[in-house]
Amino acid sequence: MSSWLPLSPGERSVAIEILVHGPLSRTELARRLDLSQGSLTRLTKPLIESGLLVEVPEAGAPAEVRQGRPSQPLDIVAESRAFLGFKITDDMVYGVVTTLRSDVVARLDRPLTGHDPAAVADLLAQMTAELAARHPALAGIGIGVGGLVRERAVVGESPFLQWRDVPLADLVRERTGLPVVVENDVAALVEAETWFGAGRGLDRFVVLTIGAGIGYGLVLGGRRVPYAEEDRGFGRHLIINPHGPLTPNGERGSAVSLLAIPSIRYQIRAATGRDATYEEILAGAAAGEPMASRVIGEAARALGTLVAQIANFAMPQKILLAGEGVGLMDVAGDAVRETIADHRHPLADPVGLETKVSDFHDWARGAAVLAIQVLVLGADRA
């Protein structure tokens, strides 16, 4: 990795454009970045010499024509470096190894038996060593945590881990010798979807996650909008129905009380005295069980209201629903869409709604994308 750094601002722009949209011809690159051919040649030459970029055959051109063509497209050497991404939950650590283009090439998960910061860092170091044995070109580590993260290094507050002011980046760096980036897990997922997923090429884009909590990320002008309260209460104080349920982790009738998986399970347990998994509750609603149907119906209407409010105020081109709770759409998607329509102007454009059934490896991949952005490209996404 050291041979690539430091990238100048111009080199960084070229590398990012090819990474996200490539392979691209020099003519197209110059047009996209508003550069002369001479300036582009000056910027791409060191990137090719360092091994970050490579000339590739033009798709569809005969082999005898492709060889030695001066206008060959440029592409990122995606396999030249590997990146580790970790997602930490309250009881598991999920790890992935990705290429420069965030393609996942390996997975490794381990149970988290305690929340002591040093012990968690030890576990991450052990997982890193195990993965490094199979992928020796590791260039850096990204870590996603549910909570408030400062300066991409310190976990200021994490209710799931019961952490305050934990210097996680330093703890892991000391044990692995690799550069480390720590970020809020929703922010990392938004970055990954913006560069390589559902938001690629969009100017206005929203990610809404449903799971242990409710997460929200907004992209404007193709860049994620950071905010100081990230993961410190979105949905917890956003009241959907003031007469709705009161749960331990949210105001009465809030988005969290109506939609988050722990809240849905709490409602069923309080009403029936029976502990049920989220999947069992969804299955019960699909089968017409009265209590499950009522709780899931309320959740569907809450989601529809929330999506409509986001669409009305942020006006995104697309809203991505992600997280382990999006199975709600399979059971009650019609109710969600009907509620969206009820809360939108009759002549408003339809909401571009996409659902992605994601597991924790997607969150880990998002953390790896942050590592790519910050450690390799020096992309200022804050």
Rg is: 23 Å
Give the strand content: 15-25%
| Spatial strand sequence of the major β-sheet | 5-4-3-6-10
CATH overall fold name of the largest domain: Nucleotidyltransferase, domain 5
Pfam families: ROK
Protein name: MarR family transcriptional regulator
Family: Belongs to the ROK (NagC/XylR) family.
InterPro entries: ATPase_NBD, ROK, WH-like_DNA-bd_sf, WH_DNA-bd_sf
Structure description:
The protein is built from 13 helices and 15 strands. With 382 residues, the chain is α/β, with parallel strands linked by helices. It has three domains: 2-76, Arc Repressor Mutant, subunit A, CATH 1.10.10; 81-191 and 362-376, 2-Layer Sandwich (Nucleotidyltransferase, domain 5); 200-355, Nucleotidyltransferase, domain 5, CATH 3.30.420. Strand 4 (92-98) and strand 5 form a beta hairpin. The radius of gyration is 23 Å and the shape is globular. The model is unreliable at 60-69 (pLDDT under 50).
